[in-house]
Design a protein that fits this description.
The protein has 290 residues and is of the alpha/beta class. It folds into two domains: 201 residues, Vaccinia Virus protein VP39 (Rossmann fold); 71 residues, Helicase, Ruva Protein, domain 3. The protein contains 13 helices and nine strands. Strand 5, helix 6 and strand 6 form a beta-alpha-beta unit.
């Protein structure tokens, strides 16, 4: 259906279907006609199977369906189903799954719908649930080539910042562990209806075939990363002891073995240093689990 970025068309659809935007679901629909074609192209959708998260009125879905082999969209809002039946009626390569993406078996869904296809993820994510969705997509070892998402601009900058720089955080380290992220382009707040209070960025995460650092136990690695950033103003030494409930002596000895200075702060450490600390603390974690 043409004109899905036209505000008059959107208002007419809303009135006819009795639809109202939900703040609880973080609904901000794209009305800038230049945005979605760029996401479809730069997100690698051409000739692939595409998993979309959140369809809205189908603005991005429409552009994906034009170039992809198949599009499967997980949409939580049941009120949008009759709207999407209308706006995407011309496509026979689109399937809408009315579920919460956080409660969906994504591996099973991909296996069912995308047999024999390369798969990419493309989505305009609600700001309030960006981090949980990204981590779900990355942690589950899904057979996807890349993840291209629109997120809050500041979140995109943090995610794509290199570990060891001031903007980096726990999410940064996790994303870089699983993928190679990069910012594609910015999107102004006026590109949405209703307009949010902040600008957005489209980022792409190219999923790694294997981790960039060797870790004895992945759970140890992420425990260390999360604890290190729990209190950014403290040194890693103090943050780990405090957040993990461990003695400063044990943490200090582990950092010495890892070759990381005790006065280092989390934002100064790269993946290699976090991995070295986690590996050095493996026996401490094992003792604690007994």
């Amino acid at each position: 259906m043409d004109g899905l970025t036209n505000i008059s068309t959107i208002k007419e659809l809303m009135e006819r279907h009795g639809f109202h935007f939900s703040k609880a679901l973080g609904q901000n629909f794209i009305v800038n006609p230049s945005v979605c074609p760029r996401i479809a192209e730069m997100g690698g959708a051409v000739g692939c199977g595409v998993l979309e998260i959140g369809a809205g009125f189908g603005v991005l879905t429409d552009q994906l369906a034009r170039v992809a082999k198949k599009v499967v969209c997980v949409e939580i809002d049941q009120r949008l189903l009759p709207v999407l039946d209308e706006t995407l009626a011309e496509y026979d390569n689109v399937t809408i799954v009315n579920k919460d993406v956080m409660e969906t078996d994504l591996k099973a869904l991909i296996a069912e719908h995308f047999a024999g296809m390369e798969v990419v993820v493309c989505a305009n994510l609600p700001y309030y649930i960006t981090s949980p969705i990204l981590m779900r997509l990355l942690e589950e070892d899904l057979p996807v080539k890349s993840i291209t998402v629109m997120v809050q601009k500041e979140a995109g900058e943090r995610i794509c910042a290199r570990p060891g720089t001031r903007q980096s955080g726990a999410l940064t380290a996790a994303v870089w562990f699983y993928s190679e992220p990069r910012q594609l382009f910015h999107v102004s707040r006026g590109s949405f209806m209703p307009a949010p209070d902040v600008d957005s960025s489209v980022i792409r995460l190219d999923v790694r075939a294997e981790a960039p650092v060797e870790v004895t136990d992945k759970k140890d690695f992420f425990r260390v990363v999360k604890a290190a950033f729990a209190q950014r103003r403290k040194t890693v030494h103090n943050s780990l002891a405090s957040a993990l409930g461990l003695s400063k002596e044990k943490v200090g000895e582990a950092m010495d073995r890892a070759g990381v200075a005790r006065n280092a702060r989390a934002e100064q450490l790269g993946l290699e240093e976090f991995a070295a600390i986690a590996n050095a603390m493996h026996d401490i974690f094992k003792e604690g689990s007994k």
